[in-house]
Amino acid sequence: MKTVQFKNPVYIGDPLNAVRIFNEKEVDELIVLDISATREKREPDYDYLEQVATECFMPVTYGGGVRDVQSVQRVISCGVEKVALNEAAITRPGLIREAASRFGSSSIVAAVDVKKDWLGKMKVFMQSQNKFLHML
Asked: How does pLDDT run across 6-51, given as a tens digit for each residue?
């Protein structure tokens, strides 16, 4: 799916076919983000993620719906090299350290959504709750 500011999703084609094209083009790395998993409070689609990772000739990073170390473990067991934590990194900051100590610091990525507030200042934004965080 292609979105603009996470809105109005448009289907642009089969992701597995896109992976095959990326393989032919010798893409360096693929990042797969399920941008609705956290908002919908659901787990990653582990079966589909395993299909993507199996088809890829490049390292894969996955983010979306990962809330704890057990989810990180399941994603990595699908063949994914890196796990991106977004909302879980904000709501459970200890998760980054815990996951990095268990799976290695090169396997954990902290992803941050940033958006301009009404004054035009860049602020951390939690998409699933549609609100700015007062961290910055």
From this structure: 678 788 788 899 899 999 999 999 999 888 888 888 999 999 999 9
Element (H, E) at 76: helix 69-77
Residue with tokens 């299909």: 51
C-beta atoms surrounding 136 within 10 Å: 11
Of 53, 106, 52, 46, residue with least CA distance to 71: 46
pTM: 0.84
Residue range 82-103, pLDDT digits in tens: 999 998 988 898 999 999 999 9
Domain-embedded: residue 27: yes
Q: Among 14, 28, 68, 113, which one carries the catalytic annotation?
A: 113
Is residue 28 annotated as a catalytic residue, yes or no?
no
Domain extent for 23: 2-111
CATH number, domain of 87, equals 3.20.20.70
